[in-house]
Amino acid sequence: MDRIDLSSARESAIYDQLPPLPFLPTWPEFPTQPQPGGYDGFLSQGAAPYTMAAPITYDELQCQQDTTYPGPSYTLSVLSCRKQKKRRQKEENEIYITKPPNAFMLFMKEQRPNVGPLVRSKGSAAVNAFLGQKWKSLSEQAQAKYYDEAERLRLLHKQQHPEWSNRENYVRMTCSHTSLGFNRRHPTASVCFCVGQKDDHKGQKKGCQKGWR
DNA sequence: GGTCCTTTGAAGGGC
DNA sequence: GCCCTTCAAAGGACC
């Protein structure tokens, strides 16, 4: 596994004191030993041959949320950090604060490595769809662990970024609903500066429009 | 290089 | 209060 040095990143070391996530090593619904086939076996056999993931750490979680995570070097997957690394470079030293993950996102993060090659070969969309089904099949007790952790991370995020709002990461709504919108690049600007473009459900372009900046 | 796909849940704005 | 929209994650596919 590659190692990324994030030691030059910003101040707070609040995550340093957090213990490893206490999740799945004791999860009772699935066998704790690696099973041949992983989720693919689950699909093809209708049973639950399950490849148990090693517990993820807060270091890895924080990498997904904010690659400016302070502290020494962390053992990270280059792939898992690629998008944010690209975005960071794009933002040219400006800090981009991501939304805290919800319960399902934590579940996906943890279980994605367990998905077998058959499902994985169909792409991330298929993997996520499969994990969505898996999520729904979990007991409330099993899901509660993820809801609790998501809530804890949400509060932690709020503590670390008290002024932050989801709205700051929005590309379209802030621009389309007010002439005094703001966005991730210029959160305090008095004019809207469009930074993205997406297709709506009708296949039409939304996002950047003439006169927005 | 940028965007889509695909999921669930959180959050915010409009009415 | 409800509805709609966006974003959080992943990485291959596509333009």
SSE string, helices as H and strands as E: EHHEHHHHHHEE
Q: Note the overall shape.
A: globular
Beta-strand percentage range: under 5%
The structure class reads mainly alpha
- Mean pLDDT reading: 53
Q: What is the gyration radius calculated from CA atoms?
A: 20 Å
Unreliable spans: 1-92, 172-213
Number of strands: 4
Keywords: Activator, DNA-binding, Nucleus, Transcription, Transcription regulation, Wnt signaling pathway
Subcellular location: Nucleus
DNA-binding region: 97-165
GO molecular function: DNA-binding transcription factor activity, RNA polymerase II-specific; RNA polymerase II cis-regulatory region sequence-specific DNA binding
Please characterize this protein's 3D structure.
This protein has 213 residues and is mainly alpha-helical. The chain has a domain at 167-213. The protein is 38% helix and 5% strand. It has helices at residues 38-45, 58-65, 78-90, 103-111, 117-120, 124-137, 140-160, 173-177; strands spanning 3-4, 74-75, 197-199, 205-207. A two-stranded antiparallel sheet has the order 1-2. Strand 3 and strand 4 form a beta hairpin. Helix 4 crosses helix 6 (124-137) and helix 4 packs across helix 7 (140-160). The longest helix has 21 residues, at 140-160. The model is unreliable at 1-92 and 172-213 (pLDDT under 50). It binds a DNA duplex (15 and 15 nucleotides) through helix 3, helix 4, helix 6, helix 7 and strand 3.
Quick tags:
213 residues; DNA-binding; 4 strands; two-stranded antiparallel ribbon; 5% strand; two-stranded antiparallel sheet
How is the secondary structure organized here?
Layout: E1 3-4, H1 38-45, H2 58-65, E2 74-75, H3 78-90, H4 103-111, H5 117-120, H6 124-137, H7 140-160, H8 173-177, E3 197-199, E4 205-207
Antiparallel strand pairs: 1-2, 3-4
Helix pairs in contact: 4-6, 4-7
The structure holds a DNA duplex (15 and 15 nucleotides).
